[in-house]
Design goal:
This protein has about 375 residues and is of the alpha+beta class. It is about 40% helix and about 20% strand. The longest helix has 18 residues. About 0% of the residues have low confidence.
Length: about 375
């Protein structure tokens, strides 16, 4: 748990995503940084006392350092202008439904599905029930999302089906956090930019704003304040045309011997322009791209070796066969295939073992059916 906390202190958040091709997204950044670890540590940190993580909108839906909750209250206060349209409409069109859902959360914490089933005969409006869940939300589900965004409800934990269990904030957050004063907006943004800078080490205005999805103007004001305190230093990065800033405590070792597969939702790859600028790595997630138009694969992991991103690997955990399947693997320009193959195979074996899979299986390049933009890594 100390190792987990050190990573939380450094990166501040783990993005959540419902896609489970290899492993849930919020578990993977810790594997990339620590190697095989017990995922129950994350579940404990986000679902039990002493709570270290809470679920809210950071970079996106994320498990965020619980100490940042007071700095995110300004976002809760902006819910009516910042939440997307269907969530805003529920409070405008059906405030009585939202009040009934909140009262039910106070009486009995539960998932949106639980709450809907308990209220179905007493709903103050005709709340259409969804034929299926996922993105086909009922009005009750939409109400719970409004309550979360606006800070009136919190997530106590996730179920085994990955559904949120909603409860009241004072029963979820540590007392010291719940009772902490709300930061005014400039101080809140300053706090979040400070944490973004510490996580990234170096970044532009766009990078620092994107980390917690902050307004660029407010971020620029915070950067100026952090320059004054000496926490950020303007620097030039070869090949970059945009101004960058260096975090005062960023480590600058002579050599980096990293070996890691990176989730598409890892904080290292949040900002794609930064990824191109630092690693000359043009990357996009293709899960929403129709199959015939994909270049590299469905769910592609960048592979970090030393100081370079040297390959990209399309992976799938086939739990029925007990295999970690390498559906495609591509070398970056200048990468040594023998060195990359050996290091990547070791990391794949480690990942498969962590996932409880018995073997790694590679699909022959002739069967990929992908154009790529580089050399196939032949096993």
């Amino acid at each position: 748990m100390r190792h987990l906390q050190r990573t939380v202190d450094r990166v501040a958040q783990f993005q959540i995503d419902s896609v489970n091709v290899v492993q849930r997204a919020h578990y993977l950044p810790l594997f990339s940084r620590l190697g095989p670890y017990d995922t129950r540590l994350v579940d404990r940190a986000a679902g039990r006392s002493p709570r270290r993580l809470f679920e809210y909108w950071g970079h996106a839906a994320s498990l965020v350092d619980v100490g940042l909750e007071p700095a995110l209250r300004f976002r809760m206060a902006r819910a009516e202008s910042e939440a997307w349209g269907s969530i805003r409409r529920i409070i405008r069109d059906h405030p009585e439904l939202v009040a009934a859902v909140l009262a039910e959360v106070g009486r009995h914490p539960g998932t949106a599905r639980d709450i809907e089933e308990r209220l179905v005969d007493d709903l103050p409006v005709s709340a259409e029930r969804a034929a299926s869940w996922g993105w086909n939300w009922s009005e009750v589900k939409t109400a719970t999302e409004w309550l979360l965004w606006s800070g009136r409800a919190s997530v106590a934990r996730r179920t085994s089906q990955f559904e949120r269990v909603f409860d009241l904030p004072h029963r979820v957050l540590p007392a010291a956090v719940a009772d902490a004063p709300t930061l005014d907006e400039p101080e809140a943004v300053l706090t979040l930019v400070r944490r973004a800078a510490a996580a990234l080490g170096i970044g532009t205005l766009g990078c620092l704003a994107d980390y917690f999805r902050l307004d660029r103007g407010e971020t620029a004001t915070a950067i100026a304040a952090l320059e004054q305190t000496g926490e950020l230093t303007p620097v030039a990065v070869p090949g970059w045309t945009r101004q960058a800033w260096l975090w005062h405590a960023a480590r600058r070792p002579r050599r980096i011997d990293a070996v890691a597969l990176l989730s598409p939702f890892d904080s290292l790859v949040f900002e794609r322009r930064r990824l191109r600028g630092l690693f000359d790595f043009d990357y996009g997630l293709e899960i929403y791209v129709p199959g015939p138009r994909r270049r590299y694969g469905y769910y592609v992991y960048p592979f970090l070796l030393g100081e370079r991103l040297v390959a990209r690997v399309d992976l799938k955990a086939d739990r029925q066969s007990g295999e970690l399947v390498v559906r495609a693997a591509w070398l970056e320009d200048g990468a040594d295939p023998g060195v990359v193959r050996s290091a990547l195979r070791g990391e794949l074996d480690l990942l498969a073992d962590w996932l409880g899979l018995a073997a790694v299986r590679t699909v022959p390049a002739a069967e990929w059916g992908l154009p790529g933009n580089g050399r196939p890594l032949v096993w």
